[in-house]
């Protein structure tokens, strides 16, 4: 195993991994929300579909 002679670097790398994991989760949630909106496209006027998409993006800011 690699020696931890520079523990600050390893802590930094771990924090980057956690941030990446969080970002992947947020992206998956956005995609899931958009898929739900897309399922309703045929049943709603385009204005309502666009509002749904905008809501998904604003929710995760």
Descriptive notes:
This is MULE domain-containing protein. Helices cover 77% and strands 0% of the residues. The protein is an all-alpha fold and 61 residues long. It has a domain at 25-60. Helix 1 (7-39) packs antiparallel against helix 2 (46-59). The chain is rod-shaped and about 60 Å long.
Write the layout of secondary structure elements.
Elements: H1 7-39, H2 46-59
Helix pairs in contact: 1-2
Organism: Aphis craccivora (Cowpea aphid)
Protein name: MULE domain-containing protein
Along the chain, the helix and strand elements come as: HH
The amount of helix comes to over 70%
% residues in beta strands: under 5%
The biggest beta sheet is recorded as: none
Distance between the terminal alpha carbons, to the nearest Å?
A: 39 Å
Q: What's the number of extended β-strand segments?
A: 0
Please give the count of helices: 2
Shape: rod-shaped
Global Rg: 19 Å
Q: Decide which structural class fits the backbone.
A: mainly alpha
Uncertain runs are: none
The overall average pLDDT, rounded, is 76
């Amino acid at each position: 195993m690699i020696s931890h002679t520079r523990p600050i670097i390893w802590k930094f790398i771990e924090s980057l991994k956690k941030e990446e994991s969080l970002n992947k989760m947020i992206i998956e949630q956005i995609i899931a929300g958009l898929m739900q909106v897309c399922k309703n496209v045929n049943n709603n006027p385009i204005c309502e579909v666009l509002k749904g998409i905008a809501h998904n993006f604003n929710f995760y800011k």
